[in-house]
Amino acid sequence: MFIKNNGSMTPQLIDQFNRKIDYIRLSVTDRCDFRCIYCMSEKMEFMPRKDLLTLEELQRLAEVFIRLGVKKIRITGGEPLVRKDIDQLFLNLGKNPQLKELTLTTNASQLKKKAPMLIAAGVKRINISLDSLNAINFKKMTRIGELNAVLEGIHFARQLGFQKIKLNCVLMRGINDHEIYDLVNYALDHYFDISFIEEMPLGNVAHERTHTFVSNDEVLEKLKSHYTLNSTTLSTGGPAKYWHVEDSQTNIGLISPHSHNFCESCNRVRISCKGELYLCLGQEDKIELLPLLRNHPYDDEPLIKGILDALKNKPKSHEFEIHKKSPAVIRFMSHTGG
Ligand code: SAM
Ligand code: SF4
User: What is the pLDDT tens value at each position of the chain, 338 positions in all?
Assistant: First the structure.
């Protein structure tokens, strides 16, 4: 890590591989109203509330990162919109002029209720997980989710005029991979972007991931046989490689941690809902920020030092290997924040 001065003597987050970190994903809860089969086990044990960052701690942490040069914050979880006091966090962060983008990833179940608040907070782009358009299959994949509520939430958000809505989809062989064209057609019909995320070995789930894994190379082949795709240089600051569907307003993103390593240009770190700073989604390296927050309520310096020191250990890349028997990383995505 190098601490660089950008003229105003503000330390910047630049790691030992010269990657500038200007994006954080902040998980605000590990709880969720769904139990997606690739993300959670059926009987999840959630963390005691006292171990979670309070609203004030979340805000203080976010503001420290903004002072360190972070320009984009994605609020995630678990399902961020099930956290009771979440509105205040969005509304407060939305007022910070140094933050260029405040965004979220959601399963859309609460969107009908929460979309007006998000608009008021200045959220312009949202990512919505949608793995199936078939109510029975949707229930099978989420265990408890209702497709209708999700579609209503999506359409309400669209009417409210978010600048961009992107759908996220994890294709699983034999479960929803046959829906690939339905999902893309839905995105085309409604002017959404859509990204396909390869299933990642995070946490112990009920199925054998090697049986369900669908490579994005296969996805791309299928898509190319059905649509005219033009390669684009579009970047939304994330790891997706985008293809534009000719004569449409839709871009298709492929997020391929297995088939194409995207670590070289990694610009992000993740903060779990209990204040663990994870340097990489696919590695265990982390530091605990909660004690630095709670032991120094009026002094941000120890926190800043902790963050800068931690960055020294940002790994060069993840070590995902879908064919290994045990998960690459024991924690679930809902813990780290997707
Ligand atoms: N609940 C919100 C949602 O579903 O959009 C936000 C949190 S969720 C953990 C964020 C993203 O992680 C979702 O798009 C989900 O599909 C993805 N995800 C969860 N577990 C995954 C896994 N094992 N492999 C790949 N993607 C995963
Ligand atoms: Fe919940 Fe999102 Fe995980 Fe599904 S992917 S269980 S919606 S946190």
Answer: 444 444 445 667 877 777 788 999 999 999 999 999 999 998 889 999 999 999 999 999 999 999 999 999 999 999 999 999 999 999 999 999 999 999 999 999 999 999 999 999 999 999 999 999 999 999 999 999 999 999 999 999 999 989 999 999 999 999 999 999 999 999 999 999 999 999 988 888 888 899 999 999 999 999 999 999 999 987 766 667 899 999 999 999 998 776 555 566 677 788 999 999 988 766 667 889 999 999 999 999 999 999 988 887 766 665 555 555 555 565 667 766 66
- Distance CA(209)–CA(212), nearest Å, equals 5
Q: Which of 171, 197, 271 to mutate to test the pocket of ligand 1 (most atoms within 8 A of CB)?
A: 197
Range of the domain at 61: 16-331
- Is residue 147 assigned to a domain? yes
The model's pTM: 0.90
* CATH number of the domain that residue 273 is part of: 3.20.20.70
CA dist., res. 254 & res. 98, Å (int): 30
Q: Mutate which of 34, 104, 143 to test ligand 2's pocket (most atoms within 8 Å of Cβ)?
A: 34
Residue 272 located in a structural domain? yes
Ligand 2 contact via 128 beta carbon (within 6 Å)? no
Query: Is the residue at 283 inside a domain?
Result: yes
Residue 334 Cα to ligand 1 middle (Å): 7
- Residue of the nearest CA to atom 8 in ligand 1? 338
Domains in the chain, number: 1
Between CA 58 and CA 62, with CA 59 as vertex, the angle to 5 degrees is 85
Rounded distance between C-alpha atoms, residue 258 and residue 262, angstroms: 9
Q: Does 2 fall in a domain?
A: no
Is residue 268 classed as helix, strand or coil in its secondary structure? strand
Work out which ligand 2 atom sits closest to the CA atom of 107. Answer: 7
CA nearest to 107, candidates 164, 134, 137, 146: 146
